[in-house]
Amino acid sequence: MAKKSGGKRKKKVEVVHLVCEETGDYNYTIRRKMGGEKLKLKKYCPRLRRHTLHVEKKK
User: Fold this and answer.
1) Mean predicted lDDT score pLDDT of the chain
2) Predicted pLDDT of residue 11
3) Topology classification of domain 13-57
4) Better-scored residue on pLDDT, 11 or 54
5) Model confidence at 26: pLDDT above 70
6) CA nearest 40: which of 57, 23, 27, 25?
7) Is the pLDDT of residue 40 over 70?
8) Where does residue 59 rank: exposed (0-12), middle (13-18), buried (19+ CB within 10 A)?
9) Burial per residue of 6-16, b for 16 or more beta-carbon CB atoms within 10 angstroms, e otherwise
10) CA distances from 28 to 4, 5, 6, 8, 55 (A)
11) N or C: where does the chain have the smaller number of CB atoms within 10 Å of the terminal CB?
């Protein structure tokens, strides 16, 4: 009896951190597809208590 390999394939993802531009804190961790452009998002920074620009950085 042969085994079938009909399972789901895993999607290729990478774990990246979003770093605050002003304080340098690693505030958010996200999983996203491989490749593409670096993310630049406005997210909440708890230290400054306001929204600041966060950029993607691999650890």
Assistant:
1) 89
2) 81
3) Rubrerythrin, domain 2 (2.20.28)
4) 54
5) yes
6) 57
7) yes
8) exposed
9) eeeeeeeeeeb
10) 40, 36, 35, 29, 10
11) N
**Range 29-44 average pLDDT:** 92
Handedness of CA 26, 27, 30, 34 (dihedral sign): negative
Q: Outline where the chain has alpha helix (H).
A: none
The tokens of 1 are what? 């009896």
pLDDT digits (tens, 9 = 90+) for 7-21: 677 889 999 999 999
Distant-in-sequence, close-in-space partners of 53: CB < 8 Å, separation ≥ 6: 20, 21, 22, 40, 41, 42
Q: Where are the beta strands (DSSP E) in the chain?
A: 13-20, 26-33, 40-45, 50-57
Among left, alpha and beta (phi > 0; psi -120 to 50; other), residue 44 is beta
